[in-house]
Amino acid sequence: MSALHISQLYKHYQLDAVRVPALIDINLDIQPQRFTVLSGPSGSGKTTLLNLIGCIDKPDSGEIIIAGQQVGKLGDNALADFRSRHIGFIFQNFNLLPVLTAFENIEYPLILTKMPAAKRKARVAQLLDAVGLSDKARNLPGQLSGGQRQRVAIARALATEPQWVLADEPTANLDSQTGAAIIQLMRRMQRELKVSFVFSSHDPQVLAAADDAVFIRDGQLQPMPAKTALGSVDSNNNQQQVAA
Amino acid sequence: MNTLSLAWRNLLRNRRRSMTTLLAMVIGVVAILLFGGYSGNINLGLQTGFVRDSGHLQIQRQDYFLYGTGNPAAYGIRDYQRVIEVIKADPVLAPMLTVVTPTLSLGGIAGNFSAGVSRTVVGNGIVVDEQNQLRLWNDYQFPDEARPSPLSNTAQNAASIGVGVARVLQLCAALQVNDCPQAKAPLSTTNAAADAASAPDDISALSELEAAPKSSSPAEAGARIELLAANTHGAPNVAALQVVKAEMLGVKELDDMSITLHLKQAQQLIYGNDAPQVTAIVLQLKHTEQMAAAQARLSQLLQTEFKSLSLEVHDYATLNPSYGQITGMFAAIFSFITLLIGAIVLFTVGNTMSMAVVERTVEIGTLRAIGLRRGGIRRLFVCEGVLLGLVGAGLGVLMALLFAYIINHSGLSWMPPGNTDPVALTVRVWGEPNMILGTAIGLLLVAAISAWWPARRAAQLNIVDALRHV
Asked: Is residue B55 part of a domain?
């Protein structure tokens, strides 16, 4: 499995007449099959970077290579297909489809890949079992707790066996105990399925669980602080994979 | 979980809004189908009336239709019996025919000599039994039955006239016609005498002869009239007629001019001892759908077998221009109503789908993020619109059938223009698959088109913006 390669990445937003830089000259390699966290203060650009990695946004310039594919050259449909095969998303607000049951929410990405029904059902059952929600398969999201919803979202993100799973503040809407359980679950899934996780998070629990951490401030990569405000990560035991 | 199933569940999510949209659609479909059924019924009713009166097709002398009313006798069909026999024996036409009957139109002056009054009339000579047969045609199963001709079982000199003719000829009392006011001040004797004096000698002589039974019952005595017409040689000829009935014909112009008599009597009046002719041969078919085939075959026969007679064929729509005008008017109203309802449905569904797009912006972003293409988003929303249309059309058709049943069995009646008797108010929805299918498909199309624009907007959403939507 190849690394995620980012080079000379620029992105800005236009707010009325003001041009606001969001990412400036990002050069980064993220190693596969790792638990990598993008950290930084609010508005630093970590969600923007995650969106660009997830191919749901386009950079002003620069190059991103994921799964050996230079994604900037892909058209809209090809990008959609690429996302469905290679990238899983976990959202802060879970973003489950409210009219679908837990089972169907997990099944939906598999339908997009045109997986045969029998294989699909087996895969969903396996994932529900893995996230401990076999008994909630027929429940609608509205009938699940926040933690259960996020577990369904994790199963959905992993359904198509993507190489990369991107999570934007996955524990932000959960209490600390549930958040910790979710991090543990993701960590376990990452190891078992040998998939690469990239997070954006402020959560010290997430930072503590990370293999690698990338620190962003004002749209630029920064050296990792010696210790975060909450004291969970320091630069000695986490490696920031910033390209030279 | 296919698109259809997802779309259906999304519709059920906001039931009240979906129900409101459906209600608008159902009302629209019911309005279209009921009005369509009503106007369709009127069209068929008109057609039935015209076919009962003048058949599906008429064979006439060339140009009679355009110029013949001025001098019908000049456009008589010679040897018409042979034409009728050939038509009746024709292997192509025979299976389609119900009645083939000749008629003779004539213009003249009807007078009531004893009252000293007269007026111009348009006469029609008919074969009564065959005319009665014509009137039995009811291919569309209307509940109303046509009345037989007043000349049924009458003597050869019998005639029926319009109420307007009876009024002018002062025959209302004699014919016991209701709603037939007579002039308050009768014409002065001087005038009457003067009129009588100016009448041709033969009319005067005839009238004097007829004056004898004056002492008998008023109905018998007063219902005699004289009909003066020019014969084929241009000479005046008079027929003494016994009027058996004055009837309302529904149109004042007809009431004021119409006289119907037996064909033989009319032929005697116009052709005297010459070979009798007719001005038209009326053909009635079993079904209107056979008209094109029958007309083609007739044209073929007229071009070959009867080429020397210079004949042509006209259908009932040509012979009765009001048919096309009335059906055209109803078609225009129907189109206008359909257009109006279509626009309402278009905006209702469009509004519903637009609201759905706004409410589900984050979901759209999520679906796009996990790999659904723009086309998939478009399909999803269009599918929701089509489903709404499908349910709306289905429910609308069922409701329209129910309302049509209630109306048809309510015993309501109305008086169509040109009619003398009220007819049952009916709407023809059941048994009109083309109208039902057309309306349903139209509604589906409108629903799909109105969902298309919001669906396109949803598909064009930027994923990141959609995910950020609050």
From this structure: no
A87 or B203: which leads in pLDDT? A87
Size of interface A-B (CB pairs under 8 A): 70
Distance from A226 to chain B by nearest Cα, in Å? 33
Per the structure, the count of domains in chain B is 2
Residues 81-120 of A with CB under 8 A from B: 81, 83-85, 88-89, 91, 93, 95, 97-100, 104, 107-109, 111-113
User: Do residue B104 and residue B200 come from a single domain?
Assistant: yes
What does the alpha-carbon distance between residue B338 and residue B397 come to, in Å, rounded to a whole number?
A: 15
pLDDT digits (tens, 9 = 90+) for B364-421: 999 999 999 999 999 999 999 999 999 999 999 999 999 999 999 988 887 777 667 7
- For residues A26 and A241, is the Cβ–Cβ distance under 8 A? no
- Give tens-digit pLDDT for B83-136: 999 999 999 999 999 999 999 999 999 998 888 899 999 999 999 999 999 999
pLDDT (tens digit per residue) in A7-39: 999 999 888 888 889 999 999 999 999 999 999
Interface of B with A (CB under 8 A): 1-2, 6, 9-10, 12-13, 362-363, 365-376, 463-464, 467
β-pairing verdict for A212-217 and B97-112: unpaired
**CA-based nearest residue in chain A for residue B369:** A56
Domain of B243 in residue numbering reads as: 73-309
Q: Indicate if B416 and B364 belong to the same structural domain.
A: yes
Chain A partners of B10 at a C-beta cutoff of 8 Å?
Answer: 99
d(CA B254, CA B123): 11
Of A150, A142, A132, A141, which is closest to residue A104 (Cα–Cα)?
Answer: A141
Q: And the tokens for A168? A: 């934007």
Residues B293, B334 share a domain: no
Per CATH, the homologous superfamily of domain A4-222 is P-loop containing nucleotide triphosphate hydrolases (3.40.50.300)
Averaged pLDDT score across all residues of chain A = 87
Beta bridge partners of A122: none
Which of B265, B283, B309 marks a domain boundary?
A: B309
Choose the closest CB to A56 out of B12, B369, B376: B369
Q: Note whether B147 and B14 are same-domain residues.
A: no
Q: Which residue has the tokens 């109208």?
A: B435
